[in-house]
Amino acid sequence: MATDQHVELAQVRSIQPAPSEDEHPPGALPLAPDADLVFAVFADLAAATVPAAAGAGICLIRPGVGRSTCAATGPLVTAAEALQDRNDGGPSRSAWSSGEAVRVPDVRGDPRWPSWATEVAALGVRAATSVPLVAGPGAFGALTVYATAPAAFDERDDRLLGLLASAVAVLTTGRPLEDARVLGDRARDALHDRDAISTAKGVLMARHGVDDDTALRLLLEASRQSGTRLRDVAQDVVRAAVRQRR
Q1: 187-245, what's its fold?
Q2: How confident is the model at residue 213 (pLDDT cuts 50, 70, 90)?
Q3: How far apart (Å, rounded) are the C-alpha atoms in residues 157 and 143?
Q4: Residue 30 CB burial class (10 angstroms; 0-12, 13-18, ≥19)
Q5: Which residue would you say has higher pLDDT here, 134 or 180?
């Protein structure tokens, strides 16, 4: 295992991120002076809130110029984003160009960006999902989360990331929010889902003596096999644990 970790770190270090000035690139869309801080905070929030996320990043994209990764929660994310530049394609660029969420259930065998998929799989990434940062008539970047397990993300994760992306756009560009109350209600629902999943992981860790990642993989596998949403599987685990204690 230690050897595998050293190999992965060597692979990550061998990939240099796209050249940047360590700040968001200037362009037609004016950004708030504290935009970089907002990007960093929301990348951390995405990684902490999406249950299966191994990391998250925010990149800005300018037509004809390229991308700049403004925030990344770790070297794995930085490398995965840099590989999109090297291979001229990937989920974050597709989310930006299409204006819609782009999900990669399993990078192994994904036909859309074969070069990127092959190289990012070698880093240990197996899944990703990306949503656009939208302001005005189009998108100015993307928020992307990565996972080390296949089929790690679903529509609920995309909706949560969409809410976070909307907040990023509001805070960095001043785009008016159409319905702040709806955004708040959906964010609370998403956080409640994460609480249930975290509690279920704790139950499995205590019951089977496994670590956090293994507990999450058990929940994901149960969700896939049963065709049930991850939140519902987690709630079933918690209810069963409560019944056993009575």
Answers
A1: Arc Repressor Mutant, subunit A (1.10.10)
A2: confident
A3: 12
A4: exposed
A5: 134
Cα of first residue to Cα of last residue in the chain, in angstroms, is 41
Question: What type of residue is 180?
Answer: A
CA-CA-CA-CA torsion sign (110, 112, 118, 123) = negative
CATH class of 2-177: alpha beta
DSSP codes of every residue in 144-206: EEEESSTT---HHHHHHHHHHHHHHHHHHH-PPPS-HHHHHHHHHHHHHHHHHHHHHHHHHHH
Strand ranges across the sheet with 127-135: 66-72, 55-62, 138-147, 127-135, 102-104
Strand 55-62 and strand 127-135: the pairing is unpaired
Other residues' Cβ atoms within 10 Å of the Cβ of residue 232: 13
Determine the residue type at 88: D
Which two three-digit tokens encode residue 76?
């794995």
Is-above-0.85 flag for pTM?
A: no
Residue 141: alpha-carbon gap to chain centroid: 14
Enumerate the domain spans of the chain: 2-177, 187-245
